[in-house]
Amino acid sequence: MIEKKKLKPYHGILVLILVLCDMMFLPFVLPRFLGFYGTIIIEGMFVVLSVAVVLLARVDLREVFPVRMPKTGKVFGTLLLWGGTFFAAEIVVLCISYFFPEKVFEASQGISAGMESVPFMMAAFIIAVTPAICEEAVFRGVFLNSLMGRWNKWIPILITGIVFGMFHGSVVRFFPTAILGIVMGYIVVETGNIFYSMLFHFVNNLFPVLLTQLLEISSQGIETEAEIMMMEIPLASVGLYMCIGVAAPFLIYIGNYLLHKGEEGHSDKLFPRQKRISLILLSGISAVLFIFGGILCVIGMSYMMQYVQLY
What we know:
By secondary structure, this protein is mostly helical. The protein has helices at residues 9-34, 38-56, 61-64, 72-99, 101-116, 120-147, 154-166, 171-191, 194-215, 219-230, 235-244, 248-260, 276-310.
């Protein structure tokens, strides 16, 4: 049998360098002529560069970009994993927003302005569809594939997620993006199908676009939002969100269950006997979130009452 060629770590590093050059130089040229539409070309080059490196390495494209027919159970599992991860990532974002509200605003200001410069459907395509395909080709395609098979699966997953967070160019965006990147890497490794990570990425990016559209944020709305975000985030809001986030561990657990349901070595029961420790751990995490969130709510409300009494 002829051994199939595989990508090596330097192939993944090469793609990252090429993508970084693409991100650094093309924005200086394209926006002058195409504005926010230039993002499509910048992201599209990610795919071109990824495919080019794989072809030059003489590796099977189907091995690096494994796209297969999705299964209903795994689709629902991916969506639940996104929901749980989104809650977890947003808790991190809200905590950062409490201490550094201006930094969070600065990180989202460019995206908000870009969304307002194009029609809704085009904004959805640029922000949700394009990254879901192009960025996944780079990170969960070439880069993750180049690291697999040399260490325990979690090392490539963690490295890919961390690098994915770093490529978003903001300390504030790094933590939530890295969390999302780690989960997407896990999905690809566990399913052997990059479609699910693309779906995860698409839903995650589409959500704020839909939220903006539903709230009908106009140019004046963005200014109002900016003023709100520049204000100190109430501590009670952080605590309330933590209380809501108690669902995150269970969403992640159930999503992971659906991702593996029917596979050999995985129980068809949601909470089998051997998973009792997992259930206790999940309940413990949720309890800690709820208690800590409740404490923050009480402290935050007491601060607000003191403020009202003073003024």
